[in-house]
Amino acid sequence: YGDIEELKFGAEVGKVLSLVVHSLYTNKDIFLREVISNASDACDKLRYLFLSDQSLMEAGEELRIVISVDRDRRELTIRDNGIGMSRKELIDNLGTIASSGTQRFLEELKGDKAQGCDLIGKFGVGFYSVFMVATNVVVESCKAGEKVGYRWQSSGDGVFSVSKIDGDVSRGTKVILTLRENEHDFLDKFRIEHIVTTYSDHVGYPIYLITSDGTEEKLNSGVAIWTKPKDAVSESEHMEFFRSISHIGSNPWMVIHNKNEGTIEYINLLYVPSVKPFDLFHPDRRCSVKLYVNRVFITEDNVQVIPQYLRFLRGVIDSSDLPLNISRETLQNSTVIEKIKASVTRKVLTSLRKKADSDPASYKTFWENFGPVLKEGLCEAMDTESREAILSVCRFYSSNSKEGELISLGDYISRMKPGQEHIFYLSGNDLESAMRSPQIEEWSSVTRVDESDLEKFTESDDQGKKKKKEKKDADDAQQKENVDAFITYMKKVLGDSVSDIKVSRKLTTSLVCLAVPEHALDIRMERFLREQKQ
Ligand code: ADP
Ligand code: MG
After folding, report:
1. Which Gene Ontology CC terms are recorded (predicted)?
2. Scanning 382, 505, 509, 510, which has its CA 20 to 30 A from the CA of 254?
């Protein structure tokens, strides 16, 4: 090797490393899943670049992942012939917090340090998980299109080194793990086979194991999971695939897997998580459904294949109707994308409606997680058809329902009293704060008054009534003067921050309430738009 340069991990990576290594990890097997998933991503990236640069690999060359073991040196090697990494990429990607999963992990960690160990299991920390089983890690890589390779090395103790590899190198990446003394299990053929079939069977590239007699044995089916017939995908396969693309540790709440034939051909394998992804309310409202064209990965976030109000979905859309050599930029304006988006949206909303009807209790969990996101669609969807479909899967609390019960607008309408002309609604962050809202005092207090109480107020003596009325008018005039003076004063104090101040007869216990002018934006909507910087 040439000159060796020693560098330090970013401070935060150092923290993650020690957590990974020193926390008793309950499932060490997953390090192999992480390394294989990186190798598969690297093959995806190469296959995409190959579309516009045919010099990057041989036509017809098989993209593959190969595992080999060296018992004497206690080494486990995972090799791929994907895109590879340049020297800079080795440093940037393996030495700093580049991975989305790790980034989220750290953000969460800031909130609750004690949960650290749990969290590692929940997200997986990508590449760094290799330090759970290895004392020394070497990554040798040669970037597609380049002739020199570089070698990255670290013992997970806070520093890593990078050096140039002398001699011949071939495109791709080799991860060489020197296993800890008590981890030699991972050199065992059956152990490796078991881990690969359990966690990585869905990987769309063949994964080979070089056996002791030197032959290659294929461990996975090598068929991308979404291209299989719906019934041929087991629950555990879905689970593992979902985990690997979402970094979410729990089972998906719902799987939406369809092969669509007709005017537009595409496959969708989409998952609704059972918990909120961390970036759900991030202002950029990023969607993370991956777009493939004929099994070639195109992009994850440059092209919107699903509307933003469905951004809780994770998964894959693969179409054969898009030209392969299309650039990511022109894709966004493609009418095919628009059609796929419309069709997928319909499918997802239909699936949600079926679930809402068939299992309202489970749907409640979904609604609590993602209802606020879905409701954005009521303002955002351009066509009435989508808006109505969204509305049909929306659920609401009603002042007339059992506590905590959610109902649909359809339910509400079907139980409206004859002659009811209006539906009043109130928006709020949660039921409790909505119930505290001064705007509904008038109604909520009405329901508290008993009919027998009302009788006590009815007067039988007409004369008495008249006298009382005269007295009341005089009082009212005096009161009006006071109130007018008060309002003039308040207007002076509040100035431009309000557009008007009015007397309300609706309040029973509160002194004031905020109201929006007629035809103006709803307060919460305005707040939402402001948060989105619109
Ligand atoms: P993530 O996969 O979530 O991005 P990882 O920690 O698993 O995070 O990997 C960090 C980065 O290192 C990857 O994003 C990728 O850029 C790079 N990388 C890791 N393994 C490989 C590989 N086999 N080939 C090319 N790049 C890789
Ligand atoms: Mg990874």
Report:
1. cytoplasm
2. 382
Element (H, E) at 137: strand 134-142
pLDDT band at 453 (very low <50, low <70, confident <90, very high): very low
DSSP state, residue 400: T
Span 151-168, average pLDDT: 91
Closest CA to 43 of 300, 296, 237: 296
Number of Cβ within 10 Å of residue 151's Cβ equals 22
C-alpha distances in Å from residue 281, one per residue of 345, 358, 369, 374, 397: 20, 29, 11, 12, 23
Which residues on neighbouring strands pair with residue 272, listed in sequence order?
254
CA angle at 123 for the pair 96 and 233, rounded to the nearest 5°: 125
Phi, psi torsion values for 461, nearest 5 degrees: -85, 105
Q: Can you tell me the ipTM of this complex? A: 0.99
Ranges assigned E (strand) in 437-484: none
Q: Do 16 and 128 form a contact (C-beta atoms < 8 A)?
A: yes
Rounded distance between C-alpha atoms, residue 327 and residue 325, angstroms? 6
First and final CA of the chain: distance in angstroms?
55
Res 193: pLDDT: 94
Residue type, 144: A
Identify the residue whose C-alpha is closest to ligand 1 atom 8: 99
Closest ligand to residue 125's CA:
1
**Binding-site residues, ligand 1, Cβ < 6 A:** 34, 38-39, 41-42, 80, 82-85, 93-94, 98-102, 126-127, 173
pTM value is 0.69
Ligand 2 center to 472 CA (angstroms): 77
Separation of 214 CA from ligand 2 center, angstroms? Answer: 29
